[in-house]
Amino acid sequence: MSARLVLQDGTVFEGEAFGAPATVVGEVVFNTSLTGYQEVITDPSYRGQMVCMTAPHIGNTGVNAEDVESDRPQVTAFIVREISQTVSNWRANETLAGYLARHSIPGISGIDTRALTRHLRTVGVLHAALSTDGSRSVEELLHLARTWEGLDGRDLVQEVTCGEVYNWGAGTAGEWTPVPAGAPAPGAATSPRPDAPLVVAYDFGIKHNILRRLTSHGLRVVVAPAQTTAEEVLALRPDGIFLSNGPGDPAGVPYAAAAVRDLLASGLPTFGICLGHQIIGLALGAATYKLKFGHHGGNQPVSDIDSTNVQITAQNHNYAVDEATLPANAVVTHRNLNDGTVEGLRLTDRPVFCVQYHPEASPGPHDADLLFARFAAMVKEQLVQKRKTA
Questions:
Q1: Cis ω on the peptide bond leading into residue 254 (within 30° of 0)?
Q2: Which of 77, 86, 220, 323 is 20 to 30 A removed from 284 (C-alpha atoms)?
Q3: Statement: residue 177 has pLDDT above 90
Q4: Coil, strand or helix: which one is 239?
Q5: Which residues pair with 344 in a beta bridge?
Q6: Shortest CA distance to 6 belongs to which of 56, 79, 70?
């Protein structure tokens, strides 16, 4: 069946439908990762967005039950140059098209994804309407795209966060662990002991591999819903706080910044990733702003200022912290080498740091995985000091 993608500026792409027959509206972004489409589709940070993959051939490894970052696909729609109908992976139990159809996610293939990507780089992020059921005209889809409310200021976190506090105990067996040189290698992670340091992880749309990486460094993890107050978190008596990735505009979750402001005052070691990084910025009184077309993919170069090296990173965000609004106790530690935006912060008076990118990868390079080791060391060191003075 034919499919039609109409951008809010009137640009039209005609292609072939796959996945579910539907008409949807969303924000179009492009992802430059060469592999890992299953992890991309299931990343909660993509809530409300149609993702265009720049790699031309997608779907050849199918879908399996292990390589998911949440319990369902999160994208509004999926846009590819060519969708593979043949699966060539012994781990796969389903085709990509069948997986999306089962979860009511539409897709369009057979369009010039390079042209779409170049267009978004030129004019910026656009709203779009996609029809894969043949029920809408160009004019109708254009109207839907232009009248859609968009993502700015919306609280998308409530659509992806967990419903209650829970212990993370899955996903550790068979997980890769760093070898001495810091590179990933196959192996089984050791489940943390009952007396291991306890970290409360805020679920703003947390990816499974973040939880795997935290536990692989010997931390017990309790996951808390996004609206959990600082008082409720502190009642769990944690040794550290983790703030996860998540979708949309950080200004749309003011309750998160309010809770984090109180948690920062507690002096607990705190680590934030992506949306968690932006929320720390807001909690410090800084402002955030929307990027022209965002950073989405597994090949973003970041300068690690403290270590004087460059990391190739996985990223997925449309907003950034405004450096000019940061307080004096916040030091920029990482910077994007493509556009100079802030990619990391640390506080000079508290054990707090955060990064805009995704050190857990999935998909992407593992250059920055040592940040999890750094956080674990901070938590364990503070716990030792606490026990000495008890």
A1: no
A2: 220
A3: no
A4: coil
A5: 334, 355
A6: 79
Q: Tell me the CA distances in angstroms from 315 to 184, 273, 318, 343, one per residue in order.
A: 19, 10, 10, 10
pLDDT at 191 over 90: no
The answer to whether residue 354 is catalytic is: no
Please name which of 205, 215, 221 lies closest in space to residue 165, comparing C-alpha atoms: 221
Contact of 189 with 219, CB cutoff 8 Å: no
Active-site choice (39, 69, 343, 360): 360
274 annotated active-site: yes
Q: Is the pLDDT of residue 170 over 50?
A: no
Q: Please, what is the Cα angle at 158 between 126 and 105, to 5 degrees? A: 55
- pLDDT at position 389: 81
User: Three-state SS across 278-299?
Assistant: HHHHHHCCCCEEEEEEEEEEEE
Q: How many CA atoms lie within 13 Å of 282's alpha carbon, on the beta-carbon side?
A: 24
Report whether 199 contacts 209 (CB < 8 A). no
For the chain, what percentages of helix, strand and coil (3-state, to nearest 5) are there? 25, 30, 45
Amino acid, single-letter form, for residue 241: I
- In total, the chain counts a number of residues equal to 390
Residue with tokens 């940070």: 45
Query: What does the pLDDT look like over 286-336, one tens digit per residue?
Result: 999 999 999 999 999 999 998 889 999 999 999 999 999 999 999 999 999
Q: In the structure encoding, which two tokens stand for residue 321, read together? A: 């912290």
Q: Parallel, antiparallel, or unpaired for β 288-304 and 330-336?
A: antiparallel
DSSP-assigned beta bridge partners for residue 112: none
Indicate if 358 belongs to the active site: yes
Q: How confident is the model at residue 173 (pLDDT cuts 50, 70, 90)?
A: very low
Interval 251-278 mean pLDDT: 97
18-32, 43-57, 167-181, 303-317: the lowest-pLDDT one: 167-181
* Cα dihedral 25, 74, 290, 314 sign: negative
Of 130, 203, 201, 151, which Cα lies nearest the Cα of 46? 151
**Does the pLDDT of residue 171 top 60, yes or no?**
no
Q: Which of 274, 334, 343, 366 is catalytic?
A: 274
Instruction: Note whether 148 and 127 are within 8 A (CB).
Output: yes
